[in-house]
Specification:
The protein has 261 residues and is an alpha/beta fold. The protein has one domain: Decaprenyl diphosphate synthase-like (Undecaprenyl pyrophosphate synthetase, 3-Layer(aba) Sandwich). Helices cover 39% and strands 14% of the residues. Strands 3-4-2-1-5-6 form a 6-stranded parallel β-sheet, with helices on both faces. Helix 4 links the parallel strand 3 and strand 4. Helix 2 packs parallel to helix 3 and helix 3 runs parallel beside helix 4. The chain is globular. The protein starts with 25 loop residues before the first strand and ends with a helix. Bound molecules: 3-methylbut-3-enyl trihydrogen diphosphate (2 copies) and magnesium ion. One 3-methylbut-3-enyl trihydrogen diphosphate binds next to helix 1.
């Protein structure tokens, strides 16, 4: 089906990344359930978040072997600021916890890192860390890890709209030229294909402001496992579920129907 399976890292239009081999090439995960994992063990929620970093490590290690090329993970939402200050502090410390132990390996193993979401509002040392992770891995292209941190789908859409409006007001952009692909190119996720599969563990069945624009034709898989227990087998299960889906992108049921007319 022409136009449906762009695999270029530059693709940002409505096409998704899933290859003829079945995909998914771009997987996005809401890393949810840390608090409940800790509560079940009588532990403070902070320990659940720390265990969640281990799950991220396992998942990043497993994804390439399962054919995934781009992985986007949701680490902190624009709404998570409403949590108690001590928990927000712990969540803000997680990128450092992860990169302190893993950045060298990511760099060495050909993983390119990008952080999306608002840098404004983050502490300067955290911004510096995210910038450093991006810069040190900018030359890599074996695997792409996109971390959504201080990210909200609505915020990202509003920020993109503001940037386009500013360009139009300054005479640099003709509003008549704003199409879906131009708009997508202004989102913080621009340059990556749209996610084929969005996974939410923890039993919740909602997006919670994750990739609202990009989710247009993503397959959604909800799993009961709590994020700190997530592993290669969990990801393989989600991918198996994805492969059983019939993706139509608004078209007809099969290619035969489309060419028959
Ligand atoms: C995910 O786990 C971490 C973030 C939201 C940042 P939660 O802390 O939401 O865990 P639950 O949903 O309360 O179990
Ligand atoms: C979504 O989980 C945000 C992240 C996992 C980073 P939440 O736990 O914040 O979502 P809700 O509150 O259950 O919708
Ligand atoms: Mg949660």
């Amino acid at each position: 089906m022409a136009g449906r399976s762009k695999t270029s890292p530059e693709a940002s239009g409505p096409a998704s990344a899933a290859s003829a081999a079945g995909g998914p090439l771009h997987v996005a995960i809401v890393m949810d359930g840390n608090g409940r994992w800790a509560q079940k063990r009588g532990l403070p929620r902070t320990l659940g978040h720390r265990a969640g970093v281990e799950a991220l490590r396992r998942t990043v290690a497993a994804a390439p072997d399962l054919g995934v090329r781009w992985l986007t993970v949701y680490g902190f939402s624009t709404e998570n600021w409403s949590r108690p200050a001590a928990e927000v502090r712990e969540l803000m410390a997680l990128p450092k916890r992860y990169f302190d132990s893993d950045l060298k390996r990511l760099e060495r193993e050909g993983v390119r890192v990008r952080a999306v979401g608002r840098r404004e509002g983050l502490a300067p040392d955290l911004v510096a860390l995210l910038d450093e992770a991006e810069q040190r891995t900018a030359h890599n292209d074996r695997f792409f890890l996109q971390i959504a941190f201080n990210y909200g789908g609505q915020a990202d859409i509003a920020d993109a709209a503001r940037r386009l409006a500013e360009a139009a007001a300054a005479g640099r952009l003709d509003p008549a030229t704003i199409t879906e692909s131009v708009f997508a190119g202004s989102l913080s996720t621009a340059g990556l294909p749209l996610p084929d599969l969005i996974i939410r563990p923890s039993g919740e069945q909602r997006l919670s402001n994750f990739l609202l624009w990009e989710a247009a034709y993503a397959e959604l898989v909800f799993q009961d496992v709590l994020w700190p227990d997530y592993d290669a087998a969990s990801l393989a299960d989600a991918i198996t579920a994805f492969r059983s889906r019939d993706r139509r992108f608004g078209g007809a049921v099969s290619d035969d129907v489309l060419v028959a007319g």
